[in-house]
């Protein structure tokens, strides 16, 4: 029975530790973040902030259920900010009633109007384009220039994407609905589905890998993956096997999405949190986003990553993200209706 | 009752009666056990009830859309997955349990515990490892291409690992130990005299297996399989990675994309009811069976010694699952861990390992304690309400982790906020959140989730202790609590330790609930692995994945030693 009594000690220790962590939870010089972006992506930026201001930043990272946690915790929630990788998550938080508006001249000056909530509930921090990766060997330059081309019959069995119900694809489909209306968007999605080389699987990077491997010739993915792949010894060959295509440059422009932030309704450290929100939109943080994650800084005029700069300037779709996100649910249903993932 | 055409009228009545009647009074002197069981059941049911409560308020009715589109496919895939994983686990688990119990062959003593090892490998990790190896760019296909001069994927056919079959194989490889563990314990504890009698009546060894051993092991097989099937059903990591569309994937689609958590909760609740019905039917079908064994159950039996081809074949039966489920993934992880050693070997690495260990040990202790109380309470109080309370207290296992986590947040936060409101109005001070966002929340979630595992395994051990033990102990003046601690616990120690082991390892691997419920800046090995695995960069956290597996081995070895030791003690005692 000696093993059991060791366990008892362990449990007693746990209980004490829990009590202690509760007792010290209300510290003024700190900010608490809930995030659906991986903590290691945020770390360099948050470290820079702490170094500059002395304010500590603590993070919980989770992709599912974090908004429900905020909602249940209510006015006593310790979280000050919510950071997410997609506009739809920002809107869901707003819909759940767990956010508050922030009207700060610095932040408003740094974030262009189309990338923030008209009511001031959320702000974009970086943008990323949903682009087409086409095989250098097998796709004639100029034969794919628009999202609409993905549905062309000539590409039957040659297209790879990740699953249709992933938020990135849901947003892209939402932008198609915004541009063409439901019926046409659905016909397009059906066309893309018919062109798929395999059942949708893996992440964006895995699609480019599939092009390199000859499974397909055209892939859809977010722009920053190109930089990440070039920076990875093993994956460089994948990136080098494709041409980047920013779709729809001659008409409405390429679909972009944002990663962003919103202040929680309960925010116990409001002043510190605003400092961090400003910091995230300023040059230092924006540059780190660009350099380490290969995202596009949302603040105009911030120097871009040298790799990103090489990709050239592109025209982004000017439709508001709020408008695109209105079609989220319809897009999700459409994915099921055309059996995209089957 | 059209959906149960196989039930006759008489059976129908007793089925309903079993469900709804409760006329038996509690035996004298067991009142507080009854209340304790009810109280525990009520508390651990809170998260499940919260999910059911959420399901009452869907954003809109999802069913017409789902029925018209993906639901038939989800259901078909889910059933096939359960059938495949269940079949593979039963086959592997029972055959390995049988040969390691009945025969002696080279390596048997090692296989006895080593066959549990694959259990320590999280399903999403093994899926990742095999994909890395078997996909187009893996070394296997690369080698074949070089050998035969193929240029692209279009030149040849190769089985696709990212498929339903692949998911069945991956999950079967790491889940069969549930069956192995439960069934083997029964094979060992089964009365040897039964088998001896069968042999003297002219049965061959094979007939003994089919007519005596397997039927008597059925309750254990059912418990093991139920655990396997619930794990398979709730798995998200593997099916997501393999793009296999199960109901769990559908739940997350409704929740995240259609923004309809109520609809997701409905799907989860229906799935839970389905499992409940399965378990209920299995129990109902053997409601008249009861087995106890007398003192001779630990009588040492002579294992048949195998040589030559037969020995090799038995060795192979045991070695293949061990090779595929443990050796291959560990070697592959080790290789990655070495390459990325410098990035992984950080101070955080130690604190993460410690966190995982502490959480899992605490949860294992608590879960086993509750399981013991529930199983014993059920034994003492022969009332339908108590039996049912024990049965439903395991429901947390039948829900996807992230959904259950939301169910945990709701009552905890409600509790915190009401205490806060109370203190605010009485004393003007805010207590903030006392339980939400603390380790308590995480441990509570683990306990709710894995109570089914511990209660099931303890119950099946306790069931085999003859009631005359209780009668003897009570008539000699022991209280019910003393009987439990001084008579039952020593007898069922192997079962209790097994339960502790299983819960510990399960907690080490647990991911979705840990992610959402944890305190700020708190990482376990599993959450660390997920950060990278979710970006398909598992290699960079291979060291952590390896440690999850290796830490899982320590209790496997320690416990199987003490289980064997306690068994030997008893054998000696009964031989005297």
TrEMBL record, chain B:
The keyword NADP does not apply. Its main location: membrane. Keywords: Cell membrane, Membrane, Transmembrane, Transmembrane helix, Transport. CDD domains: TM_PBP2. GO terms for biological process: transmembrane transport. Residues 75-280, 353-559 form the ABC transmembrane type-1 domain. It holds the Pfam family BPD_transp_1. It is found in: Cell membrane. It is a multi-pass membrane protein. GO terms for cellular component: plasma membrane. The chain crosses the membrane at residues 35-57, 77-98, 110-130, 164-187, 208-230, 261-281, 312-334, 354-377, 389-414, 426-448, 484-505, 542-564. PROSITE patterns: ABC_TM1. Belongs to the binding-protein-dependent transport system permease family. This is Iron ABC transporter permease. The lineage of its organism: Bacteria, Pseudomonadati, Pseudomonadota, Gammaproteobacteria, Oceanospirillales.
